[in-house]
Each structure stands twice: as structure tokens, then as C-alpha cells.
Prior knowledge:
Layout: H1 2-6, H2 34-50, H3 75-84
Amino acid sequence: MWQWSFGKHAQEELFNVQTDPECLNDLAGKPEHRALQAAMKEQLFRELKEQEDPRCPAAATSRRIPLRDKSHKDFYERYMKAKNSKPDG
């Protein structure tokens, strides 16, 4: 359940929502969809750059989103370890 809710997705995903509305069949990386995938990626980064989106490294902007500090790393594992440990005393 954790993986479905908070786990990492592939870097790129491509779905045909008309034939696969539940988005179960990822088409990214399949040879017959490479041109479309490349065109969509190019459009995405072009628009992010035009909007000076701070998540886009190519955007010349001073609006940068600060990176999370390392205290968030492995949160779930640390939470589960503490939850399952017995209190001292």
C-alpha cells in the first residue's frame, strides 16, 4: 500500500487515456511511441522554460524551490522501526 501511495513512479510514463482510462498499460519506452514521447517531453520543457518554472533547470529564474534536507530521507523505514520497537524500561 505504501508503494502505491508514496512510491516512486518511473521518470516518464505515457498512457493512452482513450483506450486505457485506468492508465494500467505504460507505453513509455516502446519503440512505436518513442517519437510521440520525445515530442511531448520537448514541449513540456519548452513550456516550463517559457513559464520560468523553478523545477526546470533550463529556466533562467531566481525562483528556485529549496531541496528537502536529509531529515526526510528514509522516513518510512525509520517510522516503521520506531513503531515496531519496544519502549525501554
